[in-house]
């Protein structure tokens, strides 16, 4: 089963939203949605947003100063909470909302500083660690998501190509949530190594974001 993730953000936060989108794309079972990235010419924007939210299992909300004052972001939050109330008996309250906020942002309304799963960016040394905790929050709410090998990541080989001449890509099992957490909390070398099944090269990914890193020893 795949899980859809809606990313709500103000246009001024496009870089952070794109980073979240691209990181989640590395996980095989996740299908992130970022409105401007997918919108087609002439498409009904409001209807597309409503449809995507209706189908989403998770909603990540960027509550920066820009996000808090964005009418689109606030309306998307309201629509998601309306869906939670209407669909809860059947779908266990989807979409599950994961707010990502700055501490200096005043939060009022449906999302407050006491909301479950809220992540404050200032609590982490870099946005890579924010991303790691977004992924961990999602895993907690996926059946068996915390287990070793239930989720897969896409690995891009640094050495060999596929028949079309592009970098060869393969899927690899993601360790348990606890293993990932220990790797991340060490803060010395938050990396995971995977051996390419085609050329046996050991490819390295950042365990916080699953983005490719340089080869071990290089």
Secondary structure: number of strands: 10
Q: What is the percent of helical residues?
A: 25-40%
Order of helices and strands: EHEHHEHHEEHEEHEEE
CATH superfamily of the largest domain: Toll/interleukin-1 receptor homology (TIR) domain
Q: Which fold does the CATH topology of the largest domain refer to?
A: Rossmann fold
Count of helical regions: 7
Helix/strand structural class: alpha/beta
Radius of gyration: 18 Å
- Tally of structural domains: 2
Low-confidence stretches: 86-91
> What CATH architecture of the largest domain would you give?
3-Layer(aba) Sandwich
Mean pLDDT: 87
Strand content: 15-25%
Largest sheet: 5 strands, parallel
- Name the CATH class of the largest domain: Alpha Beta
What sort of overall outline do the alpha carbons produce when their principal axes are compared?
globular
**Multimeric state of these chains?**
single chain
Task: Record the strand order, biggest sheet.
Answer: 2-1-3-4-5
In short:
It contains seven helices and ten strands.
Write structural notes for this entry.
This protein is of the alpha/beta class and 218 residues long. The protein folds into two domains: 3-140, 3-Layer(aba) Sandwich (Rossmann fold); 152-213, no CATH class. 35% of the residues lie in helices and 24% in strands. Helix 3 (45-55) runs parallel beside helix 5 (71-91). The model is unreliable at 86-91 (pLDDT under 50).
